[in-house]
Design a protein that fits this description.
The structure is a single chain. This protein is 4% helix and 43% strand. With 414 residues, the protein is mainly β. It has a five-stranded mixed beta sheet with strand order 1-28-29-30-31, with no helix packed on it. A five-stranded mixed beta sheet has the order 15-16-17-18-22, with no helix packed on it. The radius of gyration is 20 Å and the shape is globular.
């Protein structure tokens, strides 16, 4: 290797380390919001002792997934306050090498007698978002905040009130100027955007839905179609595409379903969504429409193996999904035709991820299942932590970060 080439390689590697572009996991479902990681050499197997780099107790309760960047991990938690009847809604930062908590910041206070939550929810279920030197944390109807990476609160906004059902579950998405999230409560659902610089409301639009049960929990996804950005936000009985700058609705598709949780995925010009309870469907929708395109832009739909809770996973021309009852499926993404469908474990709430040619699934008892990605079903391994977990994986630096009901694990090949 010549000196010039050696210098180029070292400089490129250092640039990747400093920028974090190759390995960060900055939001729910990773750098694209769709469950993909560029990490290599992830372990196929682990246990409470095997391939555990560290295990750290996390205070309070929370099902937010970790966000990871530049050697730090960020979480939220709801911690019972001593001597009163409130929860402290908090943001935490951990060292990714050791697992030790670097800082722990109070953001909001919530009464323990606040509207009840579902048994599979928490008061801290939305995943933080990292962008350069800022951290955004969201607690649904309790409010949203921005911190610097040393834990200093830069702004708070608790102006957007609504009546939640089962608590909050959806995370925000970031656009050029805005932090956008859905507020689908018991009545009068809406979608809102905050100015990410100061937290002020940029826009708020009503979600027009004829659903009897209007509550949902989905995380929006930012996409670009024909040079125009769209924010895709599923809700009860309807999925809408909004202009991220104005909130103007671009297109909509109607369906029957409420309590919609899965985050959309996008590819091949198609948006793939789950439609929620009571009978879930997966729909593939062409994203180049205008107005109500229910009758013209639905490419295909299926109910077989469709999830209520876990998000979908698009890898090349294959669409993967895992149902709440632990049935995994692989479909042709363009046609919906089934390649395979197999039971892989017990009940699932976490969303699957793709890394290093493999699909990583986790069920609610802490059983991790690793499949080889492809049109033929092949299970590579399964691993048990034996702790309840509903949070989705984070993947960074050739490691899995798994949040259970009491701990955060760093799983890496030892």
């Amino acid at each position: 290797m010549t000196q010039a080439l050696r210098t180029f390689v070292i400089t490129s590697a250092l640039t990747m380390i400093v920028s974090g572009q190759a390995e960060d996991w900055p939001e729910f479902r990773g750098p694209t919001g769709q469950g993909h990681s560029s990490s290599r050499n992830l372990p196929n197997e682990w246990s409470s002792a095997k391939n555990v780099a560290w295990k750290q107790a996390i205070p309070g309760q929370g099902w937010s997934s970790p966000a990871v960047a530049a050697g730090r991990i960020y979480l939220t938690a709801a911690v019972p306050s001593e001597g009163d009847s409130n929860y402290s809604l908090r943001a935490l930062c951990l060292d990714a090498d050791t697992g030790k908590i670097r800082w722990d910041q109070d953001i909001f206070s919530q009464s323990r007698s606040a509207p009840g939550i579902h048994k599979k929810n928490s008061h801290a279920s939305a995943t933080p978002i990292l962008e350069r030197d800022r951290l955004y944390v969201h607690f649904g109807h309790q409010g949203t905040a921005c911190l610097d990476l040393n834990g200093k609160v830069l702004w708070r906004n608790s102006d957007l009130k609504y009546n939640p059902v089962h608590g909050n579950g959806g995370s925000p998405c970031l656009t050029d100027d805005a932090l956008i999230f859905s507020c689908d409560g018991a009545s009068d659902p809406f979608v809102a955007a905050l100015d990410k610089r100061d937290g002020k409301v940029l826009w708020k639009v009503d979600r027009i839905s004829n659903a009897d049960k209007k509550f949902s929990f989905s995380t929006p996804l930012l996409i670009t179609v024909n040079g125009r950005k769209q924010v895709i936000s599923p809700g009860s009985n309807v999925v809408c595409a909004f202009d991220p700058k104005t909130g103007q609705e671009i297109w909509r598709v109607r369906y029957d379903g409420y309590s919609v949780i899965p985050r959309p995925v996008f590819g091949h010009g198609l948006i793939y969504i789950g439609t929620g309870f009571d009978r879930p469907n997966v729909m593939a929708i062409r994203a180049d429409g205008a107005g109500d395109v229910t009758s013209t832009h639905v490419a295909w739909t299926t109910s077989r193996g469709a999830p209520n809770t876990p998000s979908l996973l698009l890898v090349g021309e294959e669409l993967y999904m895992v149902s709440d009852s632990g049935i995994a499926s692989c479909l042709d993404a363009k046609t919906g035709r089934s390649h395979w469908q197999e039971r892989v474990g017990g009940d699932c709430s976490a969303s699957p991820v793709y890394a290093d040619g493999k699909i990583y699934i986790q069920n609610e008892t802490g059983l991790g299942v690793v499949l080889k990605a492809g049109k033929t079903f092949q299970k590579l391994a399964e691993s048990a932590l034996n702790e309840r977990t509903l949070a989705s994986y984070a993947v960074a630096d050739s490691a899995l970060f798994i949040r259970t009901d009491q701990h955060l694990y760093k799983i890496a090949a030892q």
